Automatic annotation (TrEMBL):
Domain of life, source organism: Bacteria
PROSITE patterns reported for this sequence: FTSK
Keyword vocabulary terms for this entry: ATP-binding, Membrane, Nucleotide-binding, Transmembrane, Transmembrane helix
InterPro entries assigned: FtsK/SpoIIIE/SftA, FtsK_dom, P-loop_NTPase
Protein's UniProt keywords contain Protease: no
Provenance organism: Actinoallomurus spadix
Residue ranges of the TM segments: 47-64, 70-88, 100-120, 126-143
Stretches assigned to the FtsK domain: 254-440
Keyword Mitochondrion assigned: no
Name this protein carries in UniProt: FtsK domain-containing protein
Length: 586
């Protein structure tokens, strides 16, 4: 009983006034003083401006009584204090505004103290002035966010032993705590036998115990100690607002692509070369947003050819059409495209074997081939052939630089669990999911238990990434490209796109052979009519500008200007870079 009494008393705060006790013995006065002293100690930070004012008044009264001639010395000390703050205050106060505040407080306090020493602290207007200066200088102090956070941490650290018991982490200790930009961080030492998973499983209880908003506490394991972890409390959400896309910095597909930023403001930079990637999340979670960020970066590189599969009828990838070498918009085209990718893969593999090399190193002349597939699960449902090819690419494509970037809304067992595709995905980007088990489906069995809580991501574009170098669950938010930015970026990058290398192009030459048949069938009496007929009858992959020049017998400028007119009127569409066909065909 004697042990529990003081423990409970420690928890009383402003919101929970101390209950009324009827105490019958003489210790009442002693208890009241002890409670008052504890209260003063607990709120010492908030009371600091008042305490300083009282100390100044007391000291001034003392000096005025016996040593009033010392006022010039007080003034000189004030000048020295201000000089020290301005010259070397950076050691204690890293922000300029804080140092300026400290200097102003020193001038006000020193000035008042010197005057009060000379004339007496009670001589008017000095008492009123002291009250005014205390309130004016106290206001920034009371409202200062970092000070308040520091005080809150101190109280939390003191209360941790009780809190730990309540939330089921009894025996854990706070080793250190610091305030950071968005809240505070504490290093925890766990009781022997406790693990980071125990802490992760108690996250909602910790949030409740700390009185923070749901979803505001993160736990990061300590790579060096299984019985240590870092607790990160975010008082403000660093990802509350969309983050605009900064222009890409890389020059080659070998450079990492910057997807967004983590909560500590470090960029999420991931290398796509020789790796397959999966982007998954529910509708509206921001998959297309992430594809846009990746495409905006990739289309700037001269050593990557991009093919697209978009089973939403080309809706998602259409803005990038002028930068894509090829687009498939239905399951049949998708199967053909993937079959061609496997042909390229085989041709490259055979060449590498002949050369005794192991890796296809991309250059602008021999680019890497990345196949961007939106709605990947649809493909699984509608084209088993396509899945067989995708499986092949997933297993054998890395070394020869033929890789997949798949986005899916439904990480179904059929699409993700079977075959090699999911297990071969080196980079997994998990946006918001509906159910916990979807996290395991995307990131791998056991991910949810290990703290990858994708179901708690609460805004589009927020994601978790599991990839080489990213093995702890850290929340990030992808950059956002507006539609206008997507169009402008595609326009800026379209003339820099490389073509497939001769080896790969020859391996799939049959695709262009289909197109040649059409060339022969069109008669170019009337160039306008010939152009339109050709566009109407163009194959799914479209016709190139040089083919249209041949068919119409007209020059490049004429063909371009007619195509622009048709495109402007919505009559033709650019199927992929430099390939056109009529928007609606008979
Ligand atoms: N990184 C981001 N930051 C802020 N908002 C975003 C971000 N990414 C996407 N959004 C917003 O979320 C909405 C849905 O995004 P998006 O279309 O990318 O989702 P999706 O997962 O592709 O959806 P669907 O599966 O229906 O195609 C859009 O209005 C977009 O503006």
């Amino acid at each position: 009983m004697r042990q529990r009494y003081p423990t409970r008393r420690r928890r009383w705060g402003r919101s929970e006034p101390m209950p009324l006790y009827v105490v019958t013995d003489d210790r009442q006065a002693g208890e009241a003083i002890a409670v008052l002293a504890r209260w003063l100690f607990r709120y010492r930070s908030e009371l600091a401006p008042l305490t300083t004012a009282l100390l100044l008044a007391g000291a001034a009264a003392f000096l005025h009584h016996g040593h009033r001639g010392l006022w010039p010395d007080v003034l000189a000390l004030t000048v020295v204090a201000v000089a020290v703050i301005l010259a070397s205050g950076k050691r204690w106060l890293d922000r300029g505004i804080e140092r300026a505040y400290a200097a102003v407080v020193a001038i006000a306090a020193g000035g008042w103290f010197a005057t009060a020493t000379a004339h007496g602290p009670t001589s008017p207007p000095l008492p009123g002035l002291l009250v005014a200066v205390t309130l004016i200088c106290g206001a920034p102090w009371w409202s200062h966010r970092r000070r308040r956070s520091r005080v809150r941490i101190e109280r939390t650290v003191n209360a941790w032993p009780d809190l730990a018991e309540t939330i089921g982490l009894a025996g854990s200790r706070v080793l250190s705590a610091v305030v950071d930009l968005w809240g505070w961080r504490a290093r925890l030492a766990l009781k022997r036998g406790q693990t980071v998973t125990d802490v992760i499983n108690r996250l909602p209880a910790i949030e409740s115990g700390l009185g923070t908003r749901p979803g505001s506490v993160r736990v990061e394991p300590d790579p060096a100690r299984a019985d240590h972890c870092v607790l990160h409390v975010l008082e403000k959400d660093p990802h509350a607002r969309p983050i605009p896309w900064p222009a890409p910095t890389g020059t080659s597909v070998a450079d990492p692509v910057e997807l967004g930023v983590f909560e500590d403001a470090t960029p999420v930079r991931v290398r796509l070369l020789h790796r397959h990637a999966l982007v998954a999340g529910i509708a509206g979670s921001g998959k297309s947003g992430i594809l846009n960020v990746i495409l905006a970066a990739l289309t700037a590189y001269p050593d990557v050819v991009i093919w697209g599969i978009d089973l939403k009828g080309g809706m998602e990838l259409q803005p990038w059409a002028s930068c894509l070498d090829r687009i498939a918009t239905d399951p049949r085209q998708a199967a053909e495209l993937l079959a061609d990718a496997v042909t390229i893969l085989d041709a490259r593999a055979a060449t590498l074997t002949r050369q005794g090399a192991r890796l296809w190193i991309p250059t602008p002349e021999e680019p890497t081939l990345i196949i961007v597939a939106d709605e990947y699960a649809e493909l699984a449902d509608e084209s088993p052939d396509a899945m067989a090819h995708a499986d092949s690419i997933a297993r054998r494509g890395r070394a020869v630089a033929v890789t997949l970037l798949a986005a899916t809304q439904r990480p179904t067992q059929a699409a993700m669990g079977k075959g090699a595709v999911r297990s071969q995905m080196d980079i997994r980007i998990c946006l918001r999911v509906r159910e916990r088990r979807d996290t395991d489906l995307i990131l791998g069995q056991g991910a949810h238990t290990a703290g990858w809580h994708a179901h708690t991501l609460d805004a589009p574009g927020k994601f978790l990434i599991s990839a080489p170098g990213f093995d702890v669950p850290r929340r990030a938010r992808a950059y956002l490209l507006t539609d206008e930015r997507v169009r402008a970026t595609a326009r800026a990058h379209r003339n820099r796109r490389p073509r497939l290398d001769a080896l790969s192009a020859d391996a799939i030459a049959h695709t262009t052979a289909d197109v040649e048949v059409i060339d022969a069938e069109i008669i170019a009496d009337d160039p306008e009519q010939a152009l339109w007929t050709a566009l109407l009858e163009a194959p799914d992959v479209g016709l190139s500008v040089s083919q249209l020049m041949k068919i119409t017998g007209m020059g490049r400028t004429w063909v371009y200007s007619r195509l622009q007119e048709h495109a402007h009127a919505g009559r033709v569409q650019q199927v992929s870079r430099g390939r056109w066909r009529a928007a609606q065909r008979p």
